[in-house]
Specification:
Rossmann fold; disordered C terminus; ATP binding; elongated; nine-stranded mixed sheet; Calcium-transporting ATPase, cytoplasmic domain N; transmembrane; alpha+beta
């Protein structure tokens, strides 16, 4: 579809930057002095040189998102690396390896540390370099800047200065925070897209001050000067307080004049603006080190004097029989270095690599690819992968998360009359469920005795009637498909279509209803030249649906200026269109706190009107006595719409006389020009004064349909044992019916509704009574659940926002939480964004279990950030939730795969990785301890230094990484078919003490077998053909060969899913060891020492070497084989084959 071309006088437009990064030190004089901290920015317009000196020496426009620079990289990166306790330990060990107490050469300690730290620093440097290149790409962009005498020239963004006048063209990004001075539209309006800042794709209108509109050509800036006083830079994107002094007059500034850096100019040819701103193995290590040092001290004290070869008459400092305590303490350092291999230095790097790969697999999963948007799942952090498999509670937004956030105007109530005959999705689901229930009853009745034929026939008739009713509903839906669909408009009722509303009673109220839809908005119209139809860039999908509905009813919003709205009325006069202009006097914008929007207009007859739309609870509280004529019947219609799962708003108006409006507008102007921290509060209070004594016109009902697959997804998540909470701003009836439609509430589930009556919250003195009432409801509900005898009974808790306010107070929140956690589903209605975050915090801190929050809009950010895991949906409301999240998906249904498949896999992989690290390092490290015991705890190592260096870094690292990346205990299909498998994560079945101690026991057993079996085989047996026995290097190399083969065979047995990569890493690691032994033996004896030609001349030709490896490897893995073989058979005795698949 071709986009409509904006028709406007092509005139240049200008901005002025006025960013100030450092506060003024002197007070400025002026008609509106800035008071208090945080309001001290002072900018000279079109005079950037005045900001070169203090106190106005502001920062440049150069931006940097890098963490390091050339000078700070080395010290800062090293500091980051050695904030880890393990790295500090290995650093101390490396330093001590340079002393005489070290049991082996320094290189075997320094090299692994340098390798691990070097890889991590290289990763940091690469990521920071990428950020630097992105920064330079932005900093070197060109912008048109006023140089002098009305001449504009190009400058890089980084060279723009505070006070410069900047010209920005259509579809360009703003190079700095700018004050809008004029635009290509005569009234100074422009349209901005802020997707880079908050993710919002909707266009936002901005308006220049009327006084700067003549600055519409380059030459007009030749003598332009002025001053700006404004608030200090702060993180808020949506608030701004400041004054603009020009021609000795002061004008208030608000966010509608501010254009933020990195937002984009849209649908406007040019603008001018001014820049204004911008434990476990460690404990084992300590125990055996203490044992070793105590043993050494005992040996020194009691046995060393008898060892003639130690020359006790000339003792060394470390071997002094007269000071065994000193010798034992020195040996403690030796032991801590020697047994340091119990703490795997490569564990951190291995887990980081594994998590990055897991995140990449999440990103590349085609089963979570959304064809409509082209978006894939994205793991924005890899640090929480395993927590995806341990989620206990999901807290979800509704609109845009469970639903599409694409509103369709479906029904309305005008002057007490309900219009709209089409059924909503919830009504269709309810009719389908009713038909299914009746069919079940039919089957039960058909099995009864023939004596009940009459009852049976009665039920048949009832069922038939329902089927006819259902058929009618579905047929209506089919007819809809046959018609040409209008996006945002699914209304069907001939009484209002094609001008037939003129025949209805209360025509004047109907006209007013349609005019409120068309005028009370802040959208931007765009003409599609191919179809001749206007489309709308609205700030919310609801507003867009209202404008489409108004257009279809004959009230087409076609043009907006800074001061007016033009509406084409189709049926005002027979056979011709009438354009009516409504002068916009004031716009009181919608906020989540106000829950309403109002516009004050002057019609063509000079009548001033306030047109208002908002939540029915808010509007009804502001009705006048004479404006409640339709309240009762409208309330009934609203309840029906809520039960049908529709979103509702009430519409009202108020006529104003000139004096009344002038008095109020003076107060509004004072509040608007106020420069204080409470300006927003003042504006809200003044607006509230006007939005009183309203007259009710009617109500709207729009449908936000469920996303595809939501009911099935929620059902699977419930089967996985996850508790699901929905936090929504809808009324209770709407939320309950949506709950049934999406399977959050199911037939047979007992509902617990906790509410507080309006009378309980009116007076302050009744607050305590309301709290007691709520506490009584919670207590009774908890008692009912405890007395429930049916073990399969499920409960659902529904609570509204007013009640939640009391329930979240300190003296009640624990009672509320205790009730909520025993319910399968919880729905919180009419909640604010702050309440969403508070509920999430309560669940997270109160249960101590992993919580996941999922949402799609800015009002969900607090909830997402408060949860352990935040998931953002890249939907209609922009990318704010995504930017605040840890993971992002494009549809709610993908959450099932993210948790049940990837969560389960990631949790089990990481758990198995860590357990295996415990096993292999205990199996290796304890052999050193046993040898110590046989050598009087002398600190002598049985292994060559290079063997020990390569053990964790090379020879056993790749198989464990392949385990963490590729392991699948079951396929994704099985995970989805049996979601109850997910409970292994929340119950922590793969990383509990039983499993950890089991793996540690396996490591202890393997170490005993490796050491003592080799000792028995090689102790006094001839090793070579000449009858020589094995020396220490031969015994050590044989034992190390057994360790490499045993631990790699163990990980092969642990894997239940093989790929060619795993085969390569596991068997390749064993092959790499023998290849290293061969090559290392070829190196000069100066470097290889006792390992010179050890494989070729000593070990290789000896059959006992190869027999020892085979025997020890089999013996080490026998217990694990005995453990898993019974599990390879199902309960009926048939064999179960693990998923040994080769990709």
């Amino acid at each position: 579809m071709a986009r409509g071309r904006i028709r406007a006088r092509l005139r240049r437009s200008h901005f002025h930057p006025f960013s100030c990064m450092r506060p003024r030190t002197e007070d400025d004089e002026g008609p509106h002095p800035i008071e208090g901290p945080g309001y001290s920015r002072f900018v000279h317009c079109n005079q950037p040189r005045m900001h070169w000196k203090k106190p106005l020496k502001y920062c440049s426009n150069y931006i940097s998102t890098t963490k390091y620079n050339v000078v700070t990289f080395l010290p800062k990166a090293l500091f980051e690396q050695f904030r880890r306790v393990a790295n500090i330990y290995f650093l101390l060990a490396a330093i001590l390896s340079l002393t005489p107490v070290a049991p082996f050469s320094a290189v075997s300690m320094i090299f692994p540390l340098a390798f691990v730290v070097g890889i991590s620093m290289a990763k940091e440097a690469l990521e920071d370099w990428r950020r630097f290149m992105q920064d330079m790409k932005v900093n070197t962009r060109k912008a048109s800047v006023h140089v002098a005498d009305g001449v504009f020239g190009h400058k890089p963004w980084q060279k723009i200065q505070v006070g410069d006048v900047v010209k920005v063209e259509k579809d360009q990004f703003f190079p700095a925070d700018l004050l809008l001075l004029s635009s290509s539209y005569e009234d100074g309006i422009c349209y901005v897209e802020t997707m880079n800042l908050d993710g919002e794709t909707n266009l936002k209108p901005k308006r220049a001050l009327e006084v700067t509109l003549p600055l519409d050509e380059d030459e007009t800036f030749k003598d332009f000067t002025g001053t700006i006083k404004c608030e200090d830079p702060n993180p808020s994107l949506y608030t701004f307080i400041g004054n603009f002094e020009y021609d000795r007059q002061v004008y208030p500034l608000d966010p509608s004049q501010i254009l933020l850096r990195d937002s984009k100019l849209r649908n406007t040819t040019f603008v001018y603006g001014l820049w204004y701103s911008l434990v476990l193995t460690a404990n084992l290590l300590l125990v055996i080190s203490l044992i070793s040092s105590i043993g050494f001290a005992v040996k020194i004290k009691f046995q060393m004097p008898d060892w003639w070869y130690m020359q006790p008459s000339k003792p060394e400092n470390l071997y002094d029989p007269t000071s065994p305590g000193k010798s034992g303490l020195a040996h403690l350092i030796t032991a801590l270095i020697l047994y340091g291999y119990l703490i795997p230095i490569s564990l951190y790097v291995s887990i980081e690599v594994v998590k990055v790969c897991q995140a990449k697999f999440i990103d590349e999963d085609l089963n979570m690819y959304d064809e409509e948007t082209g978006n894939t799942a994205q793991a924005r952090t890899s640090n929480l992968n395993e927590e995806l498999g341990q989620v206990d509670t999901i807290l979800s937004d509704k609109t845009g998360t469970l639903t599409c956030n694409q509103m369709d105007f479906l029904k309305c109530s005008i002057a007490g009359t309900a219009y709209g005959v089409r059924s909503s999705e919830v009504e269709l689901a309810a009719a389908k469920q009713m038909a299914m229930d009746l069919e079940e009853q039919d089957v039960e009745i058909s099995n009864c005795s023939r004596d009940k034929n009459r009852a049976h026939n009665s039920w048949e008739n009832s069922s038939g009637a329902s089927e006819i009713e259902l058929e009618t509903v579905i047929t209506s839906k089919d007819e809809k498909d046959q018609k040409s669909a209008i996006k945002g408009f699914s209304f069907e009722d001939n009484r209002l279509m094609d001008g037939n509303w003129l025949k209805e009673p209360n025509t004047d109220v109907i006209i007013l209803f349609f005019r409120i839809l068309a005028v009370c908005q802040s959208a931007v119209p765009e003409l599609n030249e191919e179809t001749g139809i206007f489309t709308y860039e609205a700030e919310s999908p609801d507003e867009g649906a209202f404008l489409v509905a108004a257009r279809e009813f004959g009230f087409e919003f076609c043009k907006r200026t800074q001061s007016s709205v033009i509406v084409r009325e189709k049926y005002a006069r027979p056979g011709q269109l009438v354009e009516r202009e409504f002068k916009i006097l004031n716009l009181l914008e919608f906020t989540s706190k106000r829950k309403r929007m109002s516009v004050i207009v002057r019609d063509e007859d000079g009548q001033i009107l306030l047109l208002c739309k908002g939540a029915d609870s808010i509007i009804f509280d502001r009705l006048s006595k004479n404006g409640r004529m339709y309240e009762e019947v409208t309330t009934k219609h609203l309840n029906e719409y809520g039960e049908a799962g529709l979103r509702t708003l009430a519409l009202a108006y108020k006529k104003l006389n000139e004096s009344e409006y002038d008095a109020w507008n003076n107060e509004f102007t004072k509040a608007k020009t106020s420069i204080s921290a409470d300006r927003d509060g003042m504006l809200e209070r003044v607006a509230d004064m006007m939005e009183r004594e309203l007259i009710l016109v009617g109500a709207t009902a729009v449908e936000d349909k469920l996303q595809k697959g939501v009911p099935q997804c929620i059902d699977k998540l419930a089967q996985a044992g996850l508790k699901i909470w929905v936090l929504t701003g809808d009324k209770m009836e709407t939320a309950i019916n949506i709950g049934f439609a999406c399977s959050l509430l199911r037939q047979g589930m007992k509902q617990i509704c906790v509410t507080v009556t309006n009378s309980d919250t009116i007076a302050q003195d009744s607050k305590q009574a309301a709290k007691e009432n709520i506490l009584n409801q919670i207590t009774n509900a908890s008692r009912m659940i405890n007395l429930e005898k049916d073990p399969h009974a499920a409960f659902a808790l529904i609570i509204d926002g007013k009640t939640l306010t009391f329930a979240l107070e300190d003296d009640m929140k624990q009672h509320f939480l205790e009730l909520a956690v025993v319910c399968a589903s919880v729905i919180c209605c009419r909640v604010s964004p702050k309440q969403k975050a508070l509920v999430t915090r309560l669940v997270k801190e109160g249960t101590g279990r992993t919580t996941l929050a999922i949402g799609d809009g800015a009002n969900d950010v607090g909830m997402i950030q408060e949860a352990d895991i935040g998931v953002g949906i890249s939907g209609v409301e922009g990318m704010q939730a995504v930017m605040a999240s840890d993971f992002s998906i494009s549809q709610f249904r993908f959450l099932e795969r993210l948790l049940v498949v990837h969560g389960h896999w990631c949790y089990k992989r990481i758990a198995q990785m860590i357990c295996y690290f415990f096993y292999k390092n205990i199996a290796f490290g304890l052999t050193l301890f046993y040898f110590e015991a046989f050598t009087a705890f002398s600190g002598q190592s049985i292994y060559d230094d290079w063997y020990m260096l390569l053990f964790n870094v090379v020879l056993t690292s790749l198989p464990v990484i392949s385990l963490g990346v590729f392991e699948q205990d079951v396929s994704s299909e099985v995970c989805l078919q049996f979601p109850a498998l997910y409970q292994q994560g929340p119950k922590n079945l793969f990383f509990d003490w039983y499993r950890i101690l089991g793996w540690m026991g396996n490591g202890l057993y393997s170490s005993l077998v490796i050491f003592f079996l080799n000792l028995v085989i090689l102790f006094d047996q001839p090793f070579r053909a000449g009858g020589q026995t094995a020396d220490m290097s031969a015994v050590g190399t044989t034992m190390f060969s057994c360790i490499i083969c045993a631990v790699n065979c163990q990980i092969a047995l642990t894997m239940s899913h093989f790929t060619w990569i795993q085969h390569l890493f596991v068997w390749g690691s064993i092959a790499a060891w023998f290849l290293f032994l061969l090559l290392y033996g070829m190196v000069s004896p100066i470097y290889s020492g006792n390992a010179y030609h050890i494989l070729v001349e000593a070990l290789g030709p000896a059959p006992i070497y190869w027999c020892s490896i085979i025997l020890v490897t089999v013996a080490c893995n026998l217990p694990y084989l005995a453990h898993i073989i019974p599990k390879m058979y199902t309960s009926n005795g048939s064999p179960y084959y693990p998923r040994n698949q080769v990709l």
